[in-house]
Design goal:
Layout (H helix, E strand, L loop, with lengths): L1 E2 H7 L5 H9 L3 E3 L2 E2 L6 E2 L6 E3 L2 E2 L7 E6 L29 E2 L8 E7 L2 H8 L7 E7 L5 H9 L13 E6 L2 E6 L6 H8 L4 E9 L2 E2 L9 E3 L2 H6 L5
Parallel strand pairs: 9-13
Antiparallel strand pairs: 1-4, 2-3, 2-5, 5-6, 7-9, 7-15, 8-9, 10-12, 10-13, 11-12, 13-14
Helix pairs in contact: 1-2
The protein binds uracil.
Length: 235
């Protein structure tokens, strides 16, 4: 059994204060009847909750989309830098959150933050074939030969072998790259192996989930259920 106000906060409906106000106003119904006491107890798996007439799709775990800015690190805590958890708005924070994957400190774009370990593992495992798509700006021109080398699987100078990757030339000195693994600085090192330096990197898609173009850099929001599932569609 869980407290109603705590449960509503966990589902991203607002801060504790905001949801308590919502409950007191009679907007929240449990199994068809308005419940006005924020500390009422219920089992979210068994009860139907509506907020202002709209059914709440309860999820045990949370899935957050962040448009990561440059300058923050993908970690749960760090002594020197702000982390991606530090920049989440208070209403999205809860214990157990972690970034599903790593973007470098200077990389921007789509990052999923969750407390669902199995989900994160499935995104990150190369066996799942979830391709991550990046937009890269370069200090030189990518060519057909660069694309061919990416498609064959780049081998780093220390012998590390990358799985075949997809490269699409976007402009004279920019490209889209898709990889389904996450070695340290992988995209930057793949380009370096071809004599090109990445000057800007942004992740634009994870599997079938694209970065919301209306989500400004540095902002985060709860993901919809269909967005959560889209990650595993169309790879
Ligand atoms: N590859 C990189 O080099 N950096 C990232 O942040 C992500 C992929």
């Amino acid at each position: 059994m869980e407290r109603l106000d705590k449960l509503l906060v966990s589902q991203g409906l607002g801060s504790r204060k905001e949801v308590q106000k919502l409950v007191r106003s009679g907007e929240v119904c449990v199994d068809g009847a308005a419940v006005r006491k924020p500390d009422s107890k219920l089992d979210p798996e068994l009860s139907e909750i509506t907020v202002s007439g709209k059914r709440l799709e309860y999820s045990r775990f949370v899935y957050i989309m962040l448009n990561k800015p440059s300058g923050v690190v993908c970690a749960t805590e760090d002594k020197a830098d702000r982390t991606v958890l530090d920049i989440l708005p208070p209403q999205l924070r809860r214990p157990g959150l972690f970034p599903a994957g790593r973007l470098d400190k200077d990389t921007e774009g789509l990052l999923i933050i969750t407390d669902d370990g199995d989900y994160a593992h499935k995104i990150l495992s190369p066996k799942s074939h979830v391709y991550k798509r990046y937009y890269a700006e370069l200090d030189g021109e990518p060519t057909g030969e660069t694309a061919r080398r990416f498609s064959e699987g780049i081998i780093f100078s220390d012998g590390t072998e990358c799985l075949p990757a997809r490269l699409e030339i976007a402009g004279k000195t920019s490209a889209y790259v898709e990889i389904c693994e996450g070695k340290f600085h992988q995209v930057k090192k793949m380009f370096l192996s071809c004599g090109l330096k990445v000057t800007y990197l942004k992740r634009v898609r994870v599997g079938g989930l694209s970065l919301d173009v209306n989500l400004p850099i540095g902002q985060a929001r709860m993901m919809e259920k269909n967005e959560k599932n889209a990650v595993f569609i169309g790879n």
